[in-house]
Design goal:
Elements (H helix, E strand, L loop, with lengths): L1 H9 L2 H22 L5 H35 L3 H29 L3 H18 L16
Helix pairs in contact: 2-5, 3-4, 3-5
Length: 143
């Protein structure tokens, strides 16, 4: 009873969520149609491009983080280590924010690439799977 009253005033939470993500769904469908004629090798290169973009756009901050980490491990003074680790934490937050920004920009593109490659893999794998009841464990056919 209470659930019906809340749903009447607040609306259906599933519908709210769907409304919120609908723009992303539309972008994924558009990207899927754009990738319809691509071969598996082209899809693989698209995926490699996504990884390369993430790596190159965060590379400077990642290198800076590694340098600070090496400094912190070599540092003997506890207070100086604390300052370095705070800087590392700040860089980690910056790197995560940058990765999130990039992933939101490319969000609609990787999903169709993955789904199409996965569907092709499943189809190819099932073509080589033996049919149940057509062979015994020794390879002889059943009557």
């Amino acid at each position: 009873m209470l659930e019906k009253i809340l749903k009447a005033f607040l609306g259906d939470p599933s519908q709210r969520t769907l409304k919120e993500i609908q723009p992303y769904i539309d972008q994924v469908h558009a990207a899927e149609q754009a990738l319809a004629g691509h071969s598996d090798a082209e899809l693989r290169s698209e995926t490699d491009g996504f990884r390369a973009r993430l790596r190159t756009e965060t590379q400077a901050k990642t290198q800076e983080r590694e340098q600070l980490k090496a400094q912190a491990e070599a540092e003997a003074d506890v207070d100086a280590k604390e300052v370095l680790y705070r800087q590392i934490d700040s860089l980690d937050s910056d790197i995560l924010a940058e990765e999130e920004r990039i992933l939101l920009e490319i969000l609609p593109k990787p999903l169709p690439c993955f789904a199409k490659r996965r569907a092709g893999f499943r189809t190819a794998r099932s073509a080589f799977r033996p049919k149940i009841g057509t062979a015994t464990c020794r390879g002889a056919s059943t009557p």
